[in-house]
Predict the structure.
Amino acid sequence: MRENIVTVTAPPAADAPPTPPREVAPRGRAGRRPGSPAAALLSWVRGGGVGTLVMFLPLLLTFGYFAWWPIAKSLILAFQRTDLITEPTWVGLSNFERVLADPLLWTALGNTAWFAVLALVIGFPLPILMAVVMAELRRTRQITSVLAYLPVIIPPVVSVLLWKQFYEPSGTGLFNSALTALGIEPVGWLQEPALAIPSIVIQSTWASAGTATIIYLAALMSIRTELYDAAEVDGASILQRTWHVTLPQLRGVILLMLLLQLIGTMQVFTEPFVMTGGGPENRTVTLLMLVYNYAFLSGDFGKATALSLLLAVGLGLLSAVYLRLTRKWSES
Amino acid sequence: MRQRRWSRVGGVVSSLALVGVLVTGCSDGAAPGTEAQAGAACDPEADVTITVGERPTSDQAATLEAWENAIAAFEELHPNITIEDEETKYDVSTFSALLVGGTLPTTLQVPFTDIQALIARGQAADITTYVEDDEVLSQLNPQVTGVTQNADGHTFGVVRAAYTMGLVYDRALFEQAGLDPDAPPATWDEVLDAAATISEKTGETGFIIPTTGNVGGWLLTSMAYSNGSLVQEQDGDTTTVTLDTPGMRESLEFLHDVRWGQDAAGDNFLHDNNTVRDDLAAGYVGQSLNGANLYNSVVISRGMPAEDFGLAPFPAGDDALGVLGGGNIQWFSPKATPDQLCAALEWTKYYFLDRYVDEEAATTWAESQVADDLPVGLPEVPVVSEEQYETFLGWIEPQVNVPRENYQAYIDSLPDATIVPEPAVKAQELYAALDPVAQAVLTREDADPAELLQAAQAQVQDLVDAG
């Protein structure tokens, strides 16, 4: 209770004997218990809470209406069956059961996980490597930064359609033209079940590596040059400097980017949707494509939101485990 | 500390409460429900405002002018009805959101393929009573109106244009390959032979169909009909999915033969409906299957020379049951009031159907089409009686601007065509399950049709049983 007591000490008069501190009751109507919600609210109002709220209101309304309310609504929808016209009915966990019973779910989960793993193997080290090389090539850093970032400027669907042309299965596609010139048979990049996901990963890496490269480059620029100077004095090669100085200094950024990439790749949609429509033989159907199909092809919003919720929970758990596992490393 | 915590909690709670109040205030407050009760009487004289979609875009100046004139004339004829028009068109991915948001027009065009799903989901108004009582709407061609009805015979839309599936082919490629474009293939064997010849003589794709976006399943279903098998059987409330059938296997064998036997299917086996049209318009594809209304898409939108566009009846197998139909249906919002529904039906008759029964309306429509370089005289399944349709053709004959002789075989087939409806239950899910089957036989020489079909059948049956 002592936190709620305001203590006022009057300066003692020069000739007066020191007086004991006088306890003053908290401001408010007599009889209101200090610390009660009503008193706290009053205190909050008097402390300028209303003004803060008014300032906060536009943000609150915007996020509330366009983000939190739809999220809350979709949470509710996951437990309902609705045609969006008549009164929805509560169906308990039925939507989840129907999602888990869909054989395509496991195909989509497998495809999505395979995409995430390949994106990790192919797409994750590349921006780091590019950033390190660009940092070393100081004279051309600006132009290489621009070149690396250019693909990001292209709208995603345009870039996907562009690559669809590159992957054209006839001999006229960009890649197959090169192969044909070398006397190699054209390849069905997006049509061979084994090649479809890797082909999409390559496009996706091309389209997104620029952003990660620029972030890594910015982090590299913040590394103190003395560390490199010391390493050079000790006779470290470029490779050794990268391994012993650069990578440890980038550790925090790398851990964050890895988590963001995991979350991003588990939500892949545009690339397979535009490039393959999920084919061949469902080899590129992803979890988000399944959500889309449930919602917009089948009009089953309950099932779509149930799968969305499962994905969100799964990603939340994945992130928590990841943060737990890497906490020690990121702090050391 | 506790006081500060209470202050914080109080602030957050009051903020959330405020958001809740405001959000609730922003929504319409009323529980979603159908405003128009099925069968409720309407007052044809009541003042009413309706919203209609598909206002022509400004690049179609003459059609837009005709549209605006039609609205003005309609409002003069029906002073109690006010029409607000907008360019909104049907889009499967936004339809539900717009509907629940209350921003869809009162009436809109939807394709044949989607109306049954909308009926099943309660997303189309029941207009049975108003249609039964109407002289024009009750007389429409029963061959095509069945698609707008549910199992109980209730009507949920008005067919305003209809066609059947057909064989679409490139007449120029036929000539280059030494084939007679005026004698298009009529059977699957003939299609296969023509595909092989085109591929061999021109180096272009002899035959291909789209296999993604549920279009592969839609076309395989049509092929199964033509080979004597349905994809669903109804017994009362029980639906049995029948994909592993002789007709469907024969259809897959045909695709397999085109691809692996004759190597005449080109290089791309993951076409969607747009990329096949692109290639057809560009002269890279000799034959494909699609709705017979493809002219607009490949000639008007993609620039294929009109004289190269060929249309033939859907190839027939030995035990053909008939052909899948397609077309445009005028949909009505389940949120509309009875008065709005009656007004929207009046507009539908006035703008889309009167041309078949009124000479002035017919010529006005045809002249505006010609002025915008849009087609007049494309083959279609008449939505009115044969006799009335012939009269309509006579009215618009001076304006006909498409080479109807290039579609003669298709036109000749229409009077005897048996239109088989789409699967009644979970049609889109069924098509989705068949897409990978079509992809499999086109991409894997050793694909086993029986195995693929049994798996797809079990998958769709589970979905049907789950409701």
Chain A touches chain B through 57 residues (CB under 8 Å). The CA atoms of residues 269 and 305 of chain A lie 16 Å apart. The longest strand of chain A covers residues 6-8.
